[in-house]
Amino acid sequence: MFVVEGELAFNTQKAVGNARAFQKELKTTGRVAEGVSKRGGSLEESFQGLGSQKTRAAIRGLQSTLAGAKDGTDAVISSAKALQVALVKSVAGTAIVTGAGVLGDAVRDVGNRIGAAADESARATKNFSGFATSIQEGIKRQDEFAASAENTRKALEGLRDANLVQSIIFRASGGEKVLKDLEERAVAISKLEFGVSAQTERITAEKQAGMSPEQIEANKRSKEEKRRIDEAKRRGGDQAAEDVKRTIAAENLLRVRTKGAEIQKKFDEDIATFQAKIAEQAQKNEQEKTDSFIASLPPQQKIVELQSEQAKVSKEIADIQNKGIYGTEKKRKEQLDAILKLQERSFSIEKDIAKAKKEALDEEQKTKEEIIQRDIEERAKQREFDRERKRNIEEAQRKLSETQRQRAQNVQTVGDQGILGASKAGQQALDVARKQRGRQVSREDFKTQEALLRQEAERMTSSPENIGGRIFNIADARKSLAKRQAAGEMPTLAEKLRGASTGRDATEIARERAGGKDSGKSISDLLAKLDEVINKITSAPLVTSGSGSN
Amino acid sequence: MDIVINSKPFENVFEKYIQRRKVDIAKELNRRAANIIMKAMEETPRVDAGSIPKELGADLIRVNQRMIKSGKRKGVLTKGKLVYAANAKERKPYRIFNWRRRFRPDSVPPRLKGKPTGNRHMKGLIDKFISSVRSSCGYIGAGWIPALKVFLTASKGQSLKTNDASKDLQRRFKYIENNKYAKAGYGNLANPRDVIMRATFGNAARGAEKITKQPLIRAMNREVTDMKLYIEGKIMGLSGAEINRLAKL
Known about the structure:
The complex is a heterodimer of chains A (550) and B (249).
Chain A: E1 3-11, H1 12-37, H2 43-50, H3 53-67, H4 74-89, H5 91-98, H6 100-127, H7 135-161, H8 164-172, H9 175-199, H10 201-209, H11 213-296, H12 299-323, H13 329-420, H14 424-462, H15 474-489, H16 493-502, H17 506-515, H18 519-528, H19 530-536
Helix pairs in contact in A: 3-4, 3-6, 4-5, 4-8, 6-7, 6-9, 7-8, 7-9, 7-11, 12-13, 14-15, 15-17, 16-17
Chain B: E1 2-4, H1 8-20, H2 25-43, H3 52-55, E2 58-63, E3 81-86, H4 92-103, H5 122-135, H6 139-142, H7 145-155, H8 165-177, E4 186-188, E5 196-203, H9 208-211, H10 213-236, H11 240-247
Antiparallel strand pairs in B: 2-3, 4-5
Helix pairs in contact in B: 1-10, 2-7, 2-10, 10-11
């Protein structure tokens, strides 16, 4: 959308500055005007007041000159009358009136100049033939016409605006109409050129389709610059064109610098973003280190560390919130993002604390179970120890009772030896009795041994272990018993361990192993039959009184 | 993009002019602005509405005439209705109308918008189309009216409050949105409290940038000449009435 705008401005400061100069001018003008107005009166009186017959004739001549001018209308005549009025009252007019020929010449001159301008305008239009094949050419042709029209226009406006007298003459001679026609012709040609060149816009558009956006932009810019320079040259000449060129150069420089500044700004922004990312990554690594260290600690210590970490995070959040969220939208967003991150961290720490507490509970439970288990084992050991102690005590008591019995027996023996030892006869008797007893004992022991061995042989023969049906004699039984006896005197380690584990005597086990399964039973049978065997083997009393012979 | 007319010549002369006249500067500036706008409206070329039907190949014909069969006016042919209808030989209006409907729908009034058509409704549409074209004559000159309203109101002696620019902007945008560009013109009065007083006026009608630039320059030049005449007349010691008479020549 285009808007055609007009702006009228008045600078009060500048006007105040010029006021003094103006006041001075006013005073001068006032004196002149006062001098002139003193003439007063009617036209004729004024004429008379002015001067001579020559002057009056000159004025009448002026009237006829104007009447005979190109545009012989009433307007011209009335303008001539008005001109007279002006001339009467003006200083310049006085000067002209005195030289009336000069005024007439001035009128003719103005008229001629207007005519010349009109002819020039018509010639320019006539020479303007053909049509443009592109917008550029159309603009060029338009500018050429506008340049020649501009010169004409300036000349005409110069005529019109020079002074009051010339302005009246200008208008009376039809100068305004020429000026208007010239401007309208320029507008019409501009439209025509624009219309023709618009048809070639499609061709330009096709050309532009093959260009890159930067090239199209550069093209447009160069066309615009050229247009501005040409416009300035047309309006203000070479100096104005130079000014515009300098302005364009400055604008281009600014544009390049701005673009460079934008590229630099983008580069700086990229660097800042990259640095921010690096800082964030470093912070994350630090965080992970702390987390892994805390994870390696025992649960209780872990809880303590996590709680101190949580306190730090809470403090940071409180600091930000106490400062307040303020500033530009970007800054506020950053602050809120920071609080959000800290709150997430705090939440994760809480989860870790809960996990650590659970671990601690589990460890406690495990420790308790271990304690209980240890207690059970200790009790079992204690029970075993008690059992062992009891067994040892029983053993010791048995040994003690045996010792006591043995001691009692020894006392008896010692008592007996004390009575007979008092005399020689007693001693002699004792010796004889000992010898006799010795002989008896050996005889009876032999017989006992023979009987026991015989029975043992019989048992061995009838034993289920005797698979081959071998008949065992006394010698065999003797060997077997000796074997058993030797095994009992020297049990092996295995037999000792077995005895300790089962609570039996190791010698018994050794005898059993040496003598076979029934050996234990056989010995008990033998012992059971021992009384019978002894009864069978009769024996005299050991010592008779006086005889000493059995 | 706006086209701003160079007003330096005016400003230079206005300074000298106002130093001779004992009037309120802002009021005089506004008055001159109003004069310029009126002269610009005068100078802005306009299409001759009468030539449009012929250009479009249409003739003005009477339709719906009927003969009264009874009553006092029996045998009288009624006037009927004057409408524009396409010339049978040229048939230009149909083509122009359909082309506009297809390629320049914005140039067609809302009630006439639609796809190109050739059905029996076309006759009625042609009449409406030509009437709408005729009514758009003087459209660009009418674009000055909103500005003129502002300055004429100020010159009638009402309070010289400067108009509210933000409210004016809303008004303008409303018209632009509804494609009423001629109504989107504006005028801003000069504020006597400013150091640099500015009176601005703008014409936002479509096509103004092509047509109304030179008329505005001419109008401004005429106003400058008027002021120069006054200055010169005062230098010469003429009275105001005499200066006016000279200016009217």
